[in-house]
Amino acid sequence: MQQHVNKNDSGSDHEFENQRQQLESKQQQERQNLETYFREQSQALHDHEGAVRVQMRQDRENLGAALNQVSTGVDRQVALKDVLTRQDTTRRDLSRAIEEQLFSKFAQKAFASNFSETQAIKAVWEKAASGEQDNKKGFAKAREKFWNSVNNSTDKDSETIRKVLQAAGYELQKGSNAPLLSMSGWDHSRPTREITERRLTIDHADPQSSEAKKTLRSDNLRFMSQMDNSIRGNRYDKYEKPRKEVDT
Q: Which residue of 159, 167, 203, 221 is most buried, as measured by CB atoms within 10 A?
């Protein structure tokens, strides 16, 4: 009898270790993907800045050439206005590229951090959780109100969250439904399973089963795919270290 129990425990430990390794491997791949994306964006911005400098030098040369070729004051003013308009457009393009790069960096950090670390996410979540009980039922209600605000509210914080999620590759849904990963079509035989894998969830860094008082706290919540959330379960603490005692 004792041998049978030990064998079952060994099988459970082996399965748990496999799941842990799968989760760590997936998280490492996601970090590598983010780093690659950031490097590509930085290089694109660098290339764009170089092109802008070349264009501005060319515009200055064109301005000089135009002023040498035209004869009347009116012609000179028209030539000057044309060149300055092109330069202004170039500066706006550069400014827009820089803003997009800065927001991309902000969005990456916001998506990967606890809710409390991003003011917009913290504000919308705490408003949704206000008045709810600190338990699973209260969390479910707060989560529903949170996604409803993200999907439908016109306030600035909700708009910021929408942009963060879209930058992370997610599509917003109707009502109070959670976003879905934009990428699709890899599991035609089981579309329901694919939807599950694409869905974004709200994960507890410290599981509810061990830290019930943190159920609604924004510093214990973060975004995570439903598949990763299911694998993670209540087996890890907020530092991603396996918990010594797993609640059953």
A: 221
Relative to beta strand 200-204, strand 170-171 is unpaired
Query: How far is residue 89's CA from residue 82's CA, in Å, rounded to a whole number?
Result: 11
Structure tokens at 76: 């000179």
Whole-angstrom distance, CA of residue 124 vs CA of residue 121: 5
What does the CA dihedral 212, 215, 216, 219 come to, rounded to 10 degrees?
100
Structure-block tokens of residue 52: 């802008």
Distance CA 134, CA 167 (A): 31
Q: What is the pLDDT of residues 166-223, one digit of tens each?
A: 999 999 999 999 999 988 776 667 777 788 889 999 999 888 887 889 999 999 999 9
Q: Is 175 left (phi over 0), alpha (psi -120 to 50) or beta?
A: left
Two tokens, residue 137: 């039922």
Q: Tens digits of per-residue pLDDT, 76-90?
A: 666 666 666 666 666
Q: Which residues of 160-182 are buried (b: 16+ CB within 10 A; e: fewer)?
A: bbbebbebbebebeeeeebbbbe
Alpha helices by DSSP H, 113-217: 119-129, 136-152, 156-167, 191-198
Q: Structure tokens of 213?
A: 């008082």
In the block, tokens 């200055």 appear at 60
Q: Does an H or E element contain 181, and which?
A: strand 180-181
- Could you tell me which residues come within 8 angstroms of residue 199 by beta carbon, excluding any fewer than 6 positions away? 178, 179, 180, 181, 225, 226
Residue 204's region, left for phi above 0, alpha for psi from -120 to 50, else beta, is beta
C-alpha–C-alpha distance, residues 110 and 26, integer Å: 19
